[in-house]
Amino acid sequence: MAKFITAAEAANLIPDGATVGIAGMGLSGWAEEVACAVRDRFRETGHPCNLSLKQGSAIGDWGYGNQFIGWDRVRRPEPDKDHGVRGVTRFGEAGPGLVAKWTSGHIGSAFTLCELTAQNKIETHCLPQGVMINLWREIAAGRPGLITKTGLGTFVDPRVEGGRMNECAKDELVKLIEIDGEEWLYYPGFKCDVALLRGTIADENGNISFAHESVMNEGFSVAAATKNTGGIVIVQAEYLAKKETLNPKEIKIPGALVDYVVIAKDPMSSWQTEGRYWEPSFSGEFRIPLDSIEPLPLDERKVICRRCAMELKKGNLVNLGVGMPADIAKVVSKEGYIDAMTMSTESGTIGGVPSALPSFGSAYNAECIVSPNDMFDLIGGGGLDMTVLGIGEIDGDGNNNVSRMGKRLTGPGGFIDITRATKKVIFAGTLMGKAKWKVGGGKLEILQEGTIRKFIEKVTQITFAGQYKPEDQEVLYVTERAVFKLIDGKMTLIEIAPGIDLQKDILDQMGFAPVVSPDLKLMPAEIFEEHWGGLGKYID
């Protein structure tokens, strides 16, 4: 039976050199109060030290820590003090030494740890999010690891970078193997000493409910993997319930797997997302009117989202990525077709309207919320009809880098998993960064050219490998002023925006020469108007 302890007592249970597994996305599933206690203990005593941290998804708040957003109007007591530091970044606040090794699908929101990574003070690897999440399940089942094609040709491939994000990262976490003459990647399992997890409610027997969580995270798999390799499971919860009062179907981590429970003293350590303490429509308590969701203003972002939405078809199962792609759901909802197809995110939300940052991974009025383990099984097997993901850097081979932009380290998240098997892949973003545009009257004007070139000769890191795409996969690159398609391995310009000069505004701003389609078309002028209302003719 689980033992109830304080956060400080939980911190004392973590030994030096331990491998620590965490689960969640954003702030959902993150044990903030226990993490702060671990940080404080390290500051005071130097222990625990040299931890090896394992996580699948981005866990942090991207600087949204001081926002006043929440259904119940909860405000942080000192809103400026904790700005942008919640989440895994807590482990870097005390400087080097607490974490020695870090393996994650996404690291971008853990600012202090990213800084230590850049300084070569933490050995850091990034692996595909779905691989990390489902590797826990392989470990729990006593299997040696995960075998998949996910990552071939990308920076995760051991022939490229092996997932290493800095010079001091030496461990070999990915191996190339051959089965029946085909190339596969093998991700070996590992022993986990401590699982550090969070739920909403714990009963007196240590059973854990995710009642207010917006993501049904991989906590069960992490707990099972940890217990089955001899480790301990610590779970933070916000509420304590009498035993045998929770619906057994609502229990996501059974008390039989939980060694210790911490009932948080500070409600601010139990935020549902980075931007909301609790949004009931995220966790299924009730549904909100969709017209209460703020629409997008008319700008280059809305144009891109509209053009991407034109690729949707009724009945599609669609994944929307973080950033600009998530806003496509707002366009589809505004056009009145949100029920014509099913939107999803890799976190496990299916249906409804996926939220953008600061609550990415959650969805308003989701029809179903499954575990990310199950979602990545669906994704990996080719179950998605279409995905829209972001643009970081694009080169002439169609490669896309979103995981490492100069000194800014991010990791791939689910990008590699999703793009490997999805039937239609759309990358969305502006052609140039920091430009100024004028949108309206059925056309686009460049008021001031950007200073950041995104379409370059060679990407810094390969997150999507254009030359490794399946033969039947359709790949588009949608920007505010041009649309490209990967045809026979060549970047081909197929559309330009009305009001745009082909040479000056497109070709001169690229680091490579694309093939210009002999059937070059104009992007529809109607998507550059304030009011559209034309999505229906494209999605039938």
Structural overview:
This protein is α/β, with parallel strands linked by helices. Helix content is 18%, strand content 26%. It contains 12 helices and 35 strands. It has an 8-stranded parallel sheet with strand order 1-15-12-9-2-3-4-5, sandwiched between helices. An 8-stranded mixed sheet has the order 17-16-22-27-32-33-34-35. Strand 10 and strand 11 (208-209) form a beta hairpin. Helix 4 (129-140) packs across helix 5. It is globular, with a radius of gyration of 23 Å. It starts with a strand and ends with a helix.
Briefly summarize what is shown.
The chain is of the alpha/beta class.
Largest sheet: 8 strands, parallel
Rg measurement, Å? 23 Å
Individual helix count: 12
- Structural class, by secondary structure, is alpha/beta
Strand order of the largest sheet: 1-15-12-9-2-3-4-5
Beta fraction:
25-35%
- General shape: globular
Low-pLDDT residue intervals, each spanning 5 or more residues:
65-83
Strand elements, count: 35
What's the end-to-end separation, in Å? Answer: 56 Å
Mean pLDDT level: 93
Q: Determine the fraction of residues in helical runs and give it as a percent range.
A: 10-25%
Please write out the topology.
Layout lengths: L2 E3 L1 H6 L6 E4 L9 H14 L5 E5 L43 E6 L6 H8 L4 E4 L2 H12 L4 E4 L26 E5 L2 E7 L5 E5 L2 E3 L4 E2 L9 H10 L3 E6 L1 E3 L9 E3 L6 E4 L16 H4 L16 H10 L7 E4 L7 H7 L7 E3 L4 E2 L2 E2 L8 E2 L3 E2 L2 H9 L5 E5 L2 E2 L5 E2 L2 E2 L2 E2 L5 H7 L2 E5 L3 E2 L2 E5 L2 E6 L3 E2 L20 E5 L3 E6 L2 E7 L5 H5 L8 E8 L13 H4 L1
Parallel strand pairs: 1-15, 2-3, 2-9, 3-4, 4-5, 9-12, 10-13, 12-15, 16-17, 16-22, 22-27, 27-32, 34-35
Antiparallel strand pairs: 6-8, 7-8, 10-11, 11-14, 18-21, 19-20, 23-24, 25-26, 28-31, 29-30, 32-33, 33-34
